[in-house]
Amino acid sequence: MAIGVGLIIFNRRSKKKVDGGLTYPSALGKVQSACVHESINHDESDHQTLSNYPAVECTYEINDLVYINKRPSFGGLVSCAL
């Protein structure tokens, strides 16, 4: 029975977190800069590996706060307030 009560409490807490996330405001962002960086790595056998990765900087405003996002992610944004 204690396990059942624990699951009910856990479910209610999880639902509150999800419901809170659904009320976030949406905002349009502006791309400030975008480029591709290259990285060359050498292993013990002197083989080279070329890697490319994006560097994108976007800004957006929510409730009079300007945010900057330097880490593109899919399915969500990772940001910090300025």
Write up this protein.
The protein is an alpha+beta fold. The longest helix is centred in the first third of the chain and has 20 residues, at 2-21. It contains one helix and four strands. 0% of the residues are buried. The mean pLDDT is 78. A hairpin with a 2-residue loop joins β2 and β3 (65-71). 24% of the residues lie in helices and 48% in strands. A four-stranded antiparallel sheet has the order 1-2-3-4, with no helix packed on it. The chain has a domain at 27-82.
Topology:
Layout: H1 2-21, E1 30-42, E2 48-62, E3 65-71, E4 78-81
Antiparallel strand pairs: 1-2, 2-3, 3-4
Point out poorly predicted stretches. none
User: Roughly how much helix do the residues carry, as a percent range?
Assistant: 10-25%
| Beta-strand content | over 45%
Judged by helices, strands and strand pairing, the structural class is alpha+beta
- Outline the biggest β-sheet: 4 strands, antiparallel
What oligomeric arrangement do these chains adopt? single chain
| Span between termini | 49 Å
Mean pLDDT across the residues is 78
What is the number of E strands?
4
Instruction: State Rg.
Output: 21 Å
Order of helices and strands: HEEEE
- Main β-sheet, spatial strand arrangement: 1-2-3-4
Continuous helix count = 1
Shape: flat
Entry keywords:
82 residues, alpha+beta, four-stranded antiparallel beta sheet, flat
Can you give me a brief rundown of this structure?
The protein has 82 residues and is α+β, with helices and mostly antiparallel strands.
